[in-house]
Design a protein that fits this description.
The complex is a heterotrimer. Chain A is an all-alpha fold. Chain A has nine helices and no strands. Chain C is built from nine helices and seven strands; from the N terminus they run αβββββββαααααααα. Chain C starts with a helix and ends with a helix. The chains are: A mainly alpha, B alpha/beta, C alpha/beta.
């Protein structure tokens, strides 16, 4: 029996991606380590994404606070505003929004970069030059996204909370100390740690999918565009799938 | 370890009955050819006839299905990653699209092959070597430029400089003049010839540009239907009455 | 040089992130009393109403620590292990009391430690605090609904009573009747007179008793005289004699009865004659009838009483009780 093309194509992609992941872990632990390139990618991926992520995080915190206030007033719990916003930012909105922005910026960037390298034979050239392109290009990038996204998320959370503090002060008044005291009073390790751990997986998925799409780019400039686009779409989808799994797992572990 | 230096009487590259197909499409169907030391051989063929596939099989980027590929007396299908790297240090490859790393300066592009090979050179020595190769291709002043700022011909020269950086014994050229204007194409062809003389390299050139072929070839092999259809000098083949051969010379 | 600058920026970036995370975790940890010096206290409860480890502990409303562990000691006792800030130790005394309360209306549970009104000794590590049961909302609601039911029944009865009083003509007639009050007044006067008489009598009686004690008067003589005592003794002996005689008479009567019985059976003797005398029978019958008539008139008066408005309630309740008993 012959499967329809879109079904067999789906399984083919899934299989290829699984191989890609397996190869990633093989190459990750086998020496030589491309440390310099890794540090460089950390800079390019992490540091250079910070301004964008800080701005979105700030706006998110501010807007969320202003949007939540009327509902909380309706229930007479306006004083819980910092708690509500703090919890939503730390537990869900911070990690997911940061990851989505990061995916939009980085996953597409990696997809396009590796795609064009593939198309212009730069990857072949590397291999011919005695450098393992998978290690040099894929491992460093995926590792960088995996480690940088959690850092970015923590920073983005902090900026979001500051935005939220300003949001509280637009119509009310609270001191920064009191605001952060209230937020941290309501937070537990069960709120911070699962949220932080899932960002590692977000980062891994974003880097890996970007690299996979770029590394397997089809010939021609159209292939590059397609890789970049697919990288964003698939990694954004993966962020939500991982988020869903994460909430189930933390629930099972009783951390919620 | 056995020396990779080939004796002068052994061919530097020997292809025996190489076969390669992608899915149902047969590209190489028993191709055989010898390249002797110091010789410049051009493989002539139409677009899509499998010339690039053949040259990538030699460097190990594509694995042949059947047949034997010997580079400097060693069967490359028997080589592990380490041996393959060793072999590649002796075999230069000039890509059709130059394959300069977009994110690096010209200097970094040239230094890149040296990060694995020639690690015994210190910073000053490698710098010197970079300048030497750039001077050879006539572009020493571009050392700190990005590849995107260079013209097609300049990129080709830089790519050649990068190919030469490890002092290879044999260089594989993948359509070196394609996409260049005739004047630049002529310059590149002459540069190829000069390189061969200066660094005493053997060359295997893939092309369908007859002007380039005429300027660079000691011998010409015609690739047709996945086989080596004919071998000979430029003049020999030009006088051939075979219409398949004659078609290239019109 | 450029690469070096980049590395510095990267290092700064990563350190900032890690530092923020560490500070955040430290702040959370401090709220959970994971750092700094603390000591343990325990308290036992029957019901912790959803208290969980990590909940706050308040001493007179001040944050003093967190609940570390909650464990079952036996089927009715739960022990709560509390981590208290060392700085609170000097304030918490051995006679302080622990109770479980709410933090806000819907908020978490808290353990409240309240100081006793009398001074006590300073508390030691791991001491067991006295726990105070604060009625939970459930219990309060239960009591309230009970009270409610009682109030409802009371009010229904009250309404009934008021209605009955309002509708009762007899009562109103009594209340309106001036002669009745006059009568009552004379009765009261009579009573007063009787009471005065009684008083006089009791005074006289008291004098009499006094006389008796002194052996004066007839009774006094009887009690205080020795000769009387010996006479009494004699009399008792006589009585004894008489009773012995009477037993003999009884025995005779007994035999007589036996004889009469046999006479009756045989159809002769005096008893038989009496029984067969019809005139006597009619006399007896008429007297029985008159007794019956008397009873029925009594019943009628009883019935009348029952219908009497004031007493109706009493009878009805009686009837209900009897019904209830029968049902059971």
């Amino acid at each position: 029996m012959k499967l329809p093309d879109y079904i067999s194509g789906f399984f083919e992609d899934t299989g290829n991606m699984a191989r890609f992941v397996a190869r990633y872990f093989r190459e990750l632990f086998r020496p030589r380590y491309e440390v310099r390139q890794f540090v460089r990618q950390c800079y390019l991926i992490g540091v250079l994404s910070f301004p964008l992520i800080a701005v979105t995080g700030f706006i998110m915190g501010l807007v969320l606070t202003m949007q939540l206030r009327p509902s909380l007033i309706a229930y007479g719990v306006e004083s819980q505003l910092p708690v509500m916003v703090g919890l939503s930012i730390v537990r869900e909105i911070g990690p997911v929004i940061t990851a989505l922005i990061f995916a939009g910026k980085i996953s597409s960037g990696i997809g396009a970069e590796l795609g064009s390298m593939k198309v212009t034979e730069q990857i072949d050239a590397m291999e011919v030059s005695g450098t393992n392109p998978f290690k040099y290009l894929v491992v460093t990038r995926v590792l960088a996204t995996t480690l940088m996204l959690p850092v970015l998320t923590v920073l983005s959370d902090a900026v979001s909370l500051y935005g939220s503090y300003l949001g509280v002060n637009i119509k009310g008044h609270t001191s920064l100390t009191l605001y952060f005291f209230q937020v941290f009073q309501s937070l537990g390790f069960g709120d911070v740690l699962p949220a932080l751990i899932k960002t590692f997986f977000f980062g891994f998925a974003i880097g890996l999918i970007g690299c996979y799409m770029g590394y397997n780019s089809k010939k021609g400039t159209e292939g590059v565009g397609r890789s970049a686009n697919a990288a964003v779409v698939v990694s954004s989808l993966f962020i939500f799938i991982i988020d869903l799994l994460a909430v189930q797992i933390t629930d099972l572990l009783g951390l919620n | 370890m056995e020396s990779l230096d080939a004796r002068s009487d052994t061919p530097i590259i020997r292809l025996t009955e190489v076969k390669k197909s992608f899915d149902d499409h047969v590209v190489l169907d028993g191709f055989s050819l010898k390249v002797n030391k110091g010789e410049s051989v051009v493989i002539l063929g139409r677009s899509g006839s499998g010339k690039s596939v053949l040259i990538k099989c030699i460097i190990g980027l594509i694995k042949a299905d059947q047949g034997k590929i010997e580079v400097m007396g060693r069967d490359i299908s028997q080589l592990d990653t380490y041996g393959l790297d060793k072999m590649r240090a002796k075999v230069g490859f000039l890509f059709q699209s130059n394959a300069l790393y977009d994110s690096m300066t010209v200097r970094e592009n040239l230094l890149f092959p040296m990060r694995r090979h020639l690690t015994n050179l210190d910073r000053r020595e490698s710098e010197q070597r970079v300048i030497e190769k750039l001077t050879h291709v006539g572009l020493a002043d571009t050392i700190d430029m990005m590849p995107s700022a260079l013209s097609g011909g300049m990129k080709k020269r830089i790519a050649l400089a990068r190919t030469l950086i490890l002092n290879p014994e044999v260089i594989l050229y993948d359509e070196p003049t394609t996409g260049l204007d005739p004047v630049t194409g002529k310059e590149i062809s002459l540069l190829l010839r000069e390189t061969q003389r200066k660094y005493n390299t053997s060359s295997l050139i893939i092309s369908h540009d007859m002007k380039c072929v005429k300027r660079t070839a000691d011998r010409i092999a015609i690739l047709l239907s996945g086989k080596c259809y004919a071998v000979g000098t430029y003049d020999e083949l030009k006088q051939s009455s075979d219409k398949n051969i004659h078609a290239f010379f019109e | 040089m450029a690469a070096n600058k980049r590395n510095i920026t990267l290092g700064f970036f990563v350190s900032a992130g890690v530092l923020l995370l560490v500070v955040a975790l430290y702040l959370i940890g401090r709220n959970r009393n994971m750092f700094g010096s603390t000591f343990h206290l325990r308290a036992r409860f029957q019901n912790v109403s959803g208290l969980m480890s990590g909940n706050n502990i308040r001493y007179s409303g001040i944050q003093a620590g967190t609940v570390k562990e909650i464990r079952m000691i036996d089927d009715t006792t739960i022990e709560v292990d509390m981590l208290i800030d060392e700085s609170m130790r000097q304030f918490i005394k051995t006679n302080s009391m622990a109770s479980i309360g709410n933090e806000g209306l819907m908020g978490n549970k808290v353990v409240n430690i309240t100081p006793a009104s009398v001074p006590g000794e300073e508390i030691e590590e791991g001491a067991l605090l006295v726990s105070k049961i604060v009625p939970g909302t459930d219990e309060m609601m239960g009591t309230l609904s009970n009270t409610n039911e009682n109030v409802e029944e009371l009010s229904i009865r009250l309404v009934n009573t008021v209605n009955r009083i309002n509708n009762s003509k007899a009562l109103w007639r009594i209340l309106d009747d001036t002669t009745l009050s006059d009568g009552l007044r004379t009765s009261m006067l009579n009573l007063q007179a009787a009471t005065t008489n009684l008083n006089i009598m009791s005074a006289e009686f008291a004098a009499l008793v006094h006389d008796v004690r002194l052996g004066e008067g007839a009774l006094g003589a009887v009690i205080s005289n020795d000769t009387v005592a010996s006479d009494l003794k004699e009399a008792v002996a006589n009585i004894k004699l008489v009773s012995e005689e009477s037993i003999k008479v009884l025995l005779r009567v007994d035999s007589m009865v036996a004889e009469t019985k046999s006479d009756l059976q045989n159809g002769d003797g005096i008893a038989n004659k009496i029984l067969n005398d019809t005139a006597l029978v009619t006399k007896v019958n008429s007297s029985l009838e008159s007794i019956e008539r008397g009873t029925s008139s009594f019943e009628q008066s009883m019935e009348a009483l029952k219908h009497n408005v004031l007493l109706r309630g009493y009878f009805r309740r009686n009837a209900k009780k009897q019904n209830g008993k029968q049902k059971r």
